[in-house]
Amino acid sequence: MSSTPENPREQPVRTAALTAIIGAAGGRRAFVDATGTPVTLPPLVRRLVATDEVVGALLRELGAELVGCAGTLDGVETVGPDRAPDPRAVAALEPHVIVAGAVDRVHDLADERLVPYLRKVAPVIAVDTGHPAVARADLKALLGTGRAARSAPAPIPNRPPGPPQTRPRLW
Questions:
Q1: Tens of pLDDT along 15-58?
Q2: What is the CATH number of domain 44-146?
Q3: Gap between the Cα atoms of 60 and 82, Å rounded
Q4: pLDDT digits 0-9 by tens, 74-133
Q5: What is the pTM for the complete model shown?
């Protein structure tokens, strides 16, 4: 079991990195997913495809526009078996982002070789399905619905993740 805490507030640097909006060309923003991979997202993230039913249920719970899901989720078009989406079926739905699960910083797809094919369709981000509270916080940041998504500072480049540095009060 991972030592990642359930409470995303206990990971302020990671949360800031996940929710940072970087002033890149075209309004794109950077997102660091649960595998530690930086992903450039389009300015508008609405149409989503989930690579498994757990991620699909989390997205649906947050009110996301879920256009496809690998596995079976009522009312959502199936794009292949759970954790094994067909890249062609995913492409036909024209998603803005594909959301996958991850465990211990590794994509939990049935075959990790699917990731490069899915990335040709749309940006792929992973959320930590082993820690639902963290996954929920990441998805809120992705969708722009979390308070942190609007107010978090940009990550400090070349700084390893860890507890925030504090300065002593001088008076």
A1: 555 554 444 445 778 899 999 999 999 888 999 999 999 999 99
A2: 3.40.50.1980
A3: 16
A4: 999 999 999 999 999 999 999 999 999 999 999 999 999 999 999 999 999 999 999 999
A5: 0.72
